[in-house]
Amino acid sequence: MKDFVTLFGRAPAVLARAPGRVNLIGEHTDYNGGYVLPTAIPQHTEVELAPRSDSKVSVWSGAVTPARVRTYELGAEIPTRDWLDYVQGVTRILASEGHPLKGFDARIVSSVPLGSGLSSSASLTVSLMRALRSAFALQLDDLTLAQIGQRVENEFVGARVGIMDPMAASLADEGTALFLDARSLQYQRVPLPKGADLVVLHSGVVHRHAAGDYNTRRRECEQACTLLGVRQLRDLSSSDLPRISQLPEPLNRRARHVVTEDDRVLAAVEAMRADDLVRLGPLFYASHASMRDDYEVSIPEIDLMVELARAEPTIYGARLTGGGFGGSVVMLAHAGTGYRTAERIAQLYAERSGCSPRVLVPAQ
Ligand code: GAF
Question: Is the pTM of this model over 0.85?
Answer without folding.
Answer: yes
